[in-house]
Amino acid sequence: MNDTLTNQSNRLDATFSRLREEKKSALMPFFTLGDPSCGVTLELLLRMEAAGADIIELGIPYSDPLADGPIIERASARALTNGVTLADGFRIAKLARERGAQIPYVLFTYYNPVMQLGVEKFFQAAAEAQLSGVIIPDLPYEESELVRIAGDKYGIHLVPLVAPTSSERIGRITEQGRGFIYCVSSLGVTGVRESFDDQVETFVKQVRSTTNLPIAIGFGISKPEHVRRFSSFCDGVIVGSAIVRRIEESLPLLTNPETAAEGILQICNFVRQLKH
């Protein structure tokens, strides 16, 4: 295997290891590729890193996003209307690296685009784009072995999701985990929430008892106080819908070349608030 590809795949491991030594938690913004354009996505990748993002989760737009709430569904629809594809994800990640981006990128995609391209070709392209991980929410653990093996071949982590409903399957899922374990904070699809059940911490402790991998939590986290709360017992906090909503609210700015920089600054200032 190409040594360069292998080394690049360790960005996730190195980031979590560094943050653990510093007794810090990773801030992991999520947003949708191509919403409202691939040019804006490229700038967000770079500016969010400067604003304090530790890892970025980049969502590939999909026509039937089963795990996504209405905010991210609308973002996917906007990107698909513009003809954005999986190939654009690899291209934009490469461009970000060429412009000096260093933090890990994790691709969030459904299984159909992976299958259409071919599992081997998918991971080869992901490695060439210096991606560090992939999340495939509609790929059941029981059917993931071939994808996980291909990811291992190219040094890219197949990150598993576990939810409170995973119950007795949690140990089997985390045993084959790579990179980190994505804990779903609540049932249902993604979306901004005002509050969370106190059982979330109990759930995370249950997951931690089954694995030494870092644990990140997502679904509904939208405020600095949420980030503070979950950072106290998780290795990473994922913020998605709240960021995508701000992108949606900033569309008049982002779609105008003369004001796009102002819109990007507003979104990155929100990320900076979450971080600090």
From TrEMBL:
It is an enzyme of class 4 (lyase). Its EC number is 4.2.1.20. The active site is at residues 57, 68. The keyword Ribonucleoprotein does not apply. It comes from the Bacteria. It catalyses: (1S,2R)-1-C-(indol-3-yl)glycerol 3-phosphate + L-serine = D-glyceraldehyde 3-phosphate + L-tryptophan + H2O. The keyword Membrane does not apply. Tetramer of two alpha and two beta chains. PANTHER family: TRYPTOPHAN SYNTHASE ALPHA CHAIN, CHLOROPLASTIC, TRYPTOPHAN SYNTHASE, ALPHA CHAIN. The alpha subunit is responsible for the aldol cleavage of indoleglycerol phosphate to indole and glyceraldehyde 3-phosphate. This is Tryptophan synthase alpha chain. The gene is trpA.
